[in-house]
Amino acid sequence: MQSITLNVQGMSCNHCVNSIEGAVKELGGYAKVNLADSTVTVEYDESKLAIETIKQTIEDQGYSVI
């Protein structure tokens, strides 16, 4: 398992948390959102899931990965 922390802009509430964590879970990864730091820590199997796919999925939810 690989772990990466992404800086994500646009998150402000529990809906944002649920949206991102749910979308990453659907990909087969695990995400933990930290609203105070504007970060998302993602654990994933790099042999099955690319980080670019994770970033795109978060952006598709309406947030900006920086």
List keywords for this structure.
single chain, 66 residues, alpha+beta, four-stranded antiparallel beta sheet, 2 helices
The secondary structure category is alpha+beta
Secondary-structure element string:
EHEEHE
Distance from first to last alpha carbon: 23 Å
What average pLDDT do the residues reach?
97
Total number of beta strands: 4
Proportion of residues in β-strands: 25-35%
Low-confidence spans? none
Shape: globular
Strand order of the largest sheet: 2-3-1-4
Radius of gyration, in angstroms, nearest whole number? 11 Å
Would you give an account of this structure?
With 66 residues, the chain is α+β, with helices and mostly antiparallel strands. The protein has 2 helices and 4 strands. The protein has helices spanning 14-27, 51-60, and strands spanning 2-9, 30-34, 39-44, 64-65. Strands 2-3-1-4 form a 4-stranded antiparallel sheet. A hairpin with a 4-residue loop joins strand 2 and strand 3. The longest helix is centred in the first third of the chain and has 14 residues, at 14-27. The radius of gyration is 11 Å and the shape is globular. The mean pLDDT is 97.
